[in-house]
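go over whats below:
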Amino acid sequence: MRKLLFLVMLAVVVTGCSSRKDFYATGGSRADGSIDMAYDFKPFETPVVDYKQAESIANSKCAVWGYNRAELFGGKTQNCQVRDGWGNCTTGQMIVKYQCVGNITPANQASASTLPSVPVGMLTPTQYKEARVKVLMDQNLPYAEYQKQYQAIMAE
């Protein structure tokens, strides 16, 4: 009886415990339309992951950038933080890449639509400058270029 109990306990310790792992976004690129989703793992764990959860998070990130949805790009990348004596990875991070797909609205079209629909002749000079500065701010220009264009608007 003791041997059987010992063997059962040994089997549980050797096989590890299943552990539910949640994905989180670790990076991405709007220009490339890619999102990196990851989960962490530790020694003696058997990670149980839900790829639908990762896809849901990736979909929301892609939607913020103007894409329709995300698709699993394929493959996994393992970042190992701790290895055992045989070179096996025991602690680390598993990264899965998602690709954003669908039509994206270019930034210049999106910002052009934010201009007031009132004819320019109806705006006061101050309102016109404010509208142009708002469009300029939405363009995500480098600081030096932004300052140059801002000064040109204010000088008018």
User: Anything to note?
Assistant: Residues 7 and 33 are 51 Å apart (CA to CA). The chain has two domains: 18-101, 107-155.
